[in-house]
Amino acid sequence: MELKDSTNGDRMLRIVLSDPNLVQYGGYDPEDYETVDEALNSECVVVVAVAKFIQGMEHNYSPREIYTEIQNYLSANL
To answer: What is the rounded CA–CA span in Å between residue 20 and residue 73?
Structure first.
């Protein structure tokens, strides 16, 4: 299901979140997340971490900045 106004990041998010192993590990329903913005507001840390990674790539953050953002988020929420 591809939405007309989807960004590349939104499409990437849906592909990554549909991975069966990630779904099993994270315990979420991939159909609940259509956009990166929706995923960033999730209560599931796995979903938010994936969304933060994609958001960082979309905004051309350095790998170090992306790593730091996700590491800080996971440290505060796990």
So the answer is: 24
- Residue 26: count of CB within 10 angstroms of its CB: 19
- The CA distance from 71 to 38, in Å, is 20
- Contact (CB, 8 A) for 49 and 74: yes
Give pLDDT tens digits along the chain (78 positions): 455 568 999 999 999 999 999 999 999 999 999 999 999 999 999 999 999 999 999 999 999 999 999 999 999 999
pTM of the predicted protein model: 0.90
Kindly state the tokens that stand for 67.
């790593």
